[in-house]
Amino acid sequence: MKPRAARWFLAASALLAVAPAAAQVAPDDAGAAVDAAAPQPEADTAREAARAHFQRGVGYIEAERWADAITELRAAQEIRVTASVMYNLGLAYRAVGRNRDAMGAFREFTRLSGAATNPEIAARVDAYMTELGAGLGRMVLEVEPPSARVMMDGAAARANESVEVDPGRHVVIAEAEGFASETRTVEVARGASTRVVLRMVPAVLSSRVTVRAEPSGATVRIDGQTVGFGTVEETVRAGTHSLDVSAPGYAPLRRSFEALAGQNQTIRATLNSNRGVAESPWFWIGVSAVAAGAGVAAWFLLQDLAPPYQGTLGTVTDAVHVGGWR
Fold it and tell me: CA 129 to CA 141: how far, in whole Å?
C-alpha cells in the first residue's frame, strides 16, 4: 500500500456488512434489479469476455496503472454496461485528471444503480462529483452558420450550449458546405466559463492568415478573439484586421494587417522580453502573400499548464472487485 494514496479496497463481505440488501442486487443491462445469486442466461462468451476485462481493470486500479485500467474497463463497457464498470471507470478517469469523463461515468453509475446503491458508495460518489465539478471549466460555442458541423477534441460538440470541459487546451473545428473550415485552439481555466465565437467565412470571400509567433507558446488574438498559441492558421474575411500577441514576461504587441480574398498570408513576429514598449518593436521576419495551397513550416512548443486538478479527497482506489461484477 503506497503511503501517498489512501486505498480502500471493498470486498463483497464489506459491502454486505454496510448494506446487505443493496449488495444482493445490481442493475442488469436494462437497468432492472436482479438477484446476483441467480443463474444468468446471458453467461455467454461475450459476457465472460466482459467479466475478464472488468477483473483486469480492477487489478490495474489496485496497481495504480490508470491507463491500463481505463483500457480494460472501456472494453468491458463496450460489451456490457453495468454500475460496477462505470464506478471503477470513474475512479480511473478521476485519477488521471479526466474530470469530465469521470463525472460522466459516476452519473451513469448513479443512474444504473438506482435505489440498490450501497449508501457508503453513494455518499462517496456524491463527494467525488462535488469535487470533480469544482475542477471543471465550461465552454460555450457560438457558431455561424447554424448548420455547421462542430467537433471538439475529435468528438461531436453541441453549439450554443454550455458544456463541461477539463481545464487546459481544446481544439474546436467547424465545417459547413460553401464555407472555409475553422479550427480554433482554446484554453479553458479551472472553474471558468469560456465563450468561443466561430463566424465562418464563405469560401469565395475567405483569406488565410498564418501567424508564427515567438515565444512559441504566445497567445494569438485576431480581432480580439483568441485563436490559438504559437503557430496559428486562421480563416478571415477579406479586409483589415487587428492582430495581438502576448506571453508572460514579454511586452504585448499589436499590429493591423490587410487580408485579400483568395490569398494566403504568413506573418512572423517575435516578442521581446518585457523591457517596455519603446524597446519592443515588431520584428517582421517575413510577411508574404502566396498562392493558396502553399506549404507552411511551423513549430510549436506548449507552455507549461497547471497540473490536473486532484481535489481534496486524495487518490482513492476503492475498486469493487470481489462480487462486484453483475
Answer: 24
